Amino acid sequence: MPERTDVPSLPLAAGPQASFDAMWADLQPVGLEASTGGYRRFAWTGEDHDLREWFAAECARRGLDLTTDRMGNQWAWWGDPDAAAAAGRPGVAVGSHLDSVPDGGAFDGPLGVVSGLVAIDVLRENGFAPSRPIGVVNFVDEEGARFGVACAGSRVITGAMSADRARSLTDADGVSMAEALRSAGRDPSALGRDEETLRRIGCFVELHVEQGRGLIDLGHPVAVGTDIWPHGRWRFDFPGAANHAGTTRLEDRQDAMLGYADTVLAARSVAAQRGCVATIGKVVVEPGGVNAIPSHVTGWLDSRGPVESDVRAVVAELSSRAETYGATVTEESWTTTTRFDQTLAVRLRDTLGGEVPMLGTGAGHDAGVLANHGVPTAMLFVRNPTGISHSPEEFAEAEDCHRGVAALARVVEDLAR
Ligand code: HGY
Ligand code: MN
Ligand code: MN
Question: End of a domain among 286, 315, 335?
């Protein structure tokens, strides 16, 4: 029985390890909210600008050719992706995103971007000469924290979201994405499907911190991602009538909060009945005064589950319940069941030694958008000992991060040889 070359058990060489740690340290303070220990790195803000500048500098340091696509996603290439695509050998892309949810963790996104850059360091240190270009991407606005639609960067370049819709999305202050792009020095009229960019990608492997407990329970540092649950976001608008909280008789009140509250509690029970998950994690109350009866409440539902029809049934039941309060419900995003390229996923597993676990996830990723667009795509997950994500508690041990880089370098070497 040949010695199992299980890459996750191989530590990262000292040079790339130091490079990972240094880049990780550089990123730590950017967008850190001291009061919570979480990150606020939202699309087209000052923090996002700093992160994009950091990415550009790290790519320049490696002599990678940095391009920005029609949506503003940053792509750094080792090798000529256009010549390779023309020759029928499109590139191998890795990377992820640098933005966060409000008070999110340090690893969701950045781990994939830093690991992609260090994987190139590893391959170069090993004297590897790729026969395909290798690219590292920083997708913009993956979390949709500011404008409300997740994976906006990958959705626009694949046509999964129209440029017009993207431009018209607004943040909590009513600033449109078009205005935010202009403020960031970008031309919003450039937005759209980007065939030139997509043509360069032969396959995409996104390394990401695991956002659950799978690897803890399995006792492995790295897993191969196989699929993403169907999931979506729905906006619930509950009408009411502003009035005095003290002088208005109960029978005269049209309190928008009641329908909202009922729907929040129902989301948990209806999801549980159908083997799904659901939460309403964001709410806006108008006028928002303690002594004013709410005239309008907007809540955003996030629901997901292993079976598409069950998720749809959860949303349908919650919608009809909310409509009894006069609410209107708007689907803001939907991602169908995503099966990654199983041939690619198995190839990653075999390259890493046959026992590497293969896991599905309930978290959405740009990898899912590319996969649904027909790009051969798979993921690698790195163990998160807390199992917590979208929280300052999100974590990955440095040793497991290094093992993730070693695994990513190994699979890229196999795919780009
Ligand atoms: O919502 C998600 O699953 C991803 O983190 N955007
Ligand atoms: Mn996330
Ligand atoms: Mn992510």
Answer: 335
One-letter amino acid for residue 109 of the chain: G
Q: How far apart are CA 43 and CA 380, in angstroms?
A: 25
Closest ligand 1 atom number to CA of residue 151: 6
What is the Cα–Cα distance from 335 to 332, expressed in whole angstroms? 11
Instruction: Tell me, yes or no, whether 97 lies in a domain.
Output: yes
Closest CA to 412 of 60, 132, 6, 107: 132
Ligand 1: nearest atom to the Cα of 231: 3
Question: Are 19 and 132 contained in the same domain?
Answer: yes
293: which strand partners?
A: 243
In a shared domain, residues 405 and 303: no
Structural domain total, the chain: 2
Pocket test for ligand 1, best of 141, 161, 361, 365 (most atoms within 8 A of CB): 365
| Residue 251, phi-psi category: left (phi > 0), alpha (psi -120 to 50), beta (remainder) | alpha
* Domain limits for position 281: 231-335
CA 365 to ligand 1 center in whole angstroms? 6
Candidate of 111, 142, 149, 303 to mutate for ligand 1, largest count of ligand atoms within 8 Å of Cβ: 142
Same domain, 268 and 137: no
Nearest CA to ligand 1 atom 1: 364
- 317 and 344 share a domain? no
Mean pLDDT of 334-362: 95
Residues with CB under 6 A from ligand 1: 142-143, 150, 363-364
Same domain membership, residue 93 and residue 146 = yes
CA atoms within 13 A on the CB side of 50: 13
Inter-residue contact 45 to 143 (CB < 8 Å)? no
Q: Which atom of ligand 1 lies closest to the CA of 362?
A: 3
Residue 174, pLDDT above cutoff 50: yes
CA of 143 to the centre of ligand 2 (A): 6
Query: Could you report the per-residue pLDDT of 6-57, keeping only the tens digit for each?
Result: 444 667 888 999 999 999 999 999 999 999 999 999 999 999 999 999 999 9
Q: Which atom of ligand 1 is nearest to the CA of 101?
A: 5
Pair 37, 177 in one domain? yes
- Indicate whether 262 belongs to any domain: yes
Whether 177 and 289 share a structural domain: no
Domain membership flag for residue 4: no
pLDDT, residue 80, reads 98
Q: What is the pLDDT of residues 246-291, one digit of tens each?
A: 999 999 999 999 999 999 999 999 999 999 999 999 999 999 999 9
